[in-house]
Write a structure and sequence with these properties.
Elements (H helix, E strand, L loop, with lengths): L2 H15 L6 E5 L12 E6 L17 E7 L2 E7 L11 H12 L4 E10 L9 E10 L26 H13 L5 E8 L7 H10 L3 E3 L3 H9 L3 E11 L10 H25 L3
Parallel strand pairs: 1-4, 1-5, 5-9, 6-7, 7-8
Antiparallel strand pairs: 2-3, 3-4, 5-8, 6-9
Helix pairs in contact: 1-2, 2-5, 3-6
The structure holds hypoxanthine.
């Protein structure tokens, strides 16, 4: 992680969005960008203007940072994330969490698209993440210790804040939507998995698989922020059915599920902003 670029990026965000403090940070994964339409937008900037982020690299990730009004609070909404597999190191992946920490946010809410390993999960379902398995093979906290990320050896026994998990669940129930809870396993990507890998992940206890979220969640948890995360199950993971996998299907599934995703996230963020 490059601290100088993180600091330059923080300054660029503060200057361009005229923001000094925020309550929530939302990091929107593949196909989730449009949930921002649920909130009044106060200001916005393209990722190109944030040194650590640069132009977005993956379709379905808009590459805009929004300052939104959420009831009595404000949120920064990252429309699209950067991933380890893009090969640019941890600085762009960590930036949204760094900004959350430096601007005093209480909550980091993470969203993603994921493949369902547990056969109970079908495309279009939502899954609140209860815990994760880091199958990336790397960790953003490797390197010189910086106390902004908490102690050298952070406790990770409760990464996803129980109260936030409850709020996510209750919001879905209040709105009449059933959601699952489960364990998310992150791989490095960018390949989808083989059926044999998916069988192994199932044996390890994973319910869903994706290529993101774990790095931001572990950083935010280490830094003492409250973390909530939700997956849109966009496909059966490899080998669960015979259907081939592709990014187009992933985006099509999030588009179909968008009204529910938007309603739940709006409800959750409003609950957290009173
Ligand atoms: N595997 C990994 N990442 C994903 C998948 C998947 O099946 N679906 C959406 N993101």
């Amino acid at each position: 992680m490059d601290k100088a670029i993180l600091d330059q990026s923080l300054q660029a965000i503060q200057a361009q969005l005229h923001v000094t403090a925020i309550q929530h940070v939302l990091i929107l994964g593949s196909g989730w960008s449009d949930i921002a339409a649920a909130f009044p937008i106060l200001a916005e900037m393209p990722y190109e203007n944030i040194p650590a982020m640069g132009a977005p690299g993956v379709s379905g990730h808009k590459g805009r940072l929004l300052l939104a009004q959420t009831g009595n609070a404000t949120a920064l909404i990252f429309q699209g994330r950067r991933h380890w597999y893009e090969g640019l190191g941890w600085t762009p992946v960590a930036l949204p969490v760094y900004v959350a920490k430096c601007l005093g946010a209480q909550h980091v809410l993470l969203t993603n698209a994921a493949g369902g390993i547990n056969p109970k999960l079908i495309p279009g379902d939502l899954m609140i993440i209860t815990d994760h398995i880091n199958g990336i093979g790397h960790n953003p906290l490797v390197g010189q210790h910086d106390t902004i990320w908490g102690p050298r050896f952070p406790d990770q026994s409760s990464v996803y804040t129980p109260q936030l998990r409850k709020t996510l669940l209750q919001s879905a129930r209040t709105l009449g939507h059933s959601v699952h809870e489960g364990i998310y396993l992150a791989t490095s990507g960018p390949i989808y998995e083989t059926p044999a890998e998916i069988r192994m992940f199932r044996t390890l206890g994973a319910d869903a698989v994706g290529m993101s979220t774990v790095p931001e969640a572990l950083l935010a948890s280490a830094a003492g922020l409250q973390v909530g995360a939700i997956s849109c199950i966009t496909n059966h993971a490899a080998g669960v059915t015979d259907a081939p996998l592709g990014h187009d299907e992933v985006l099509a599934a999030t588009t179909r599920t968008m009204p529910v995703m938007k309603a739940i996230l709006h409800h959750v963020v409003t609950q957290l902003s009173t």
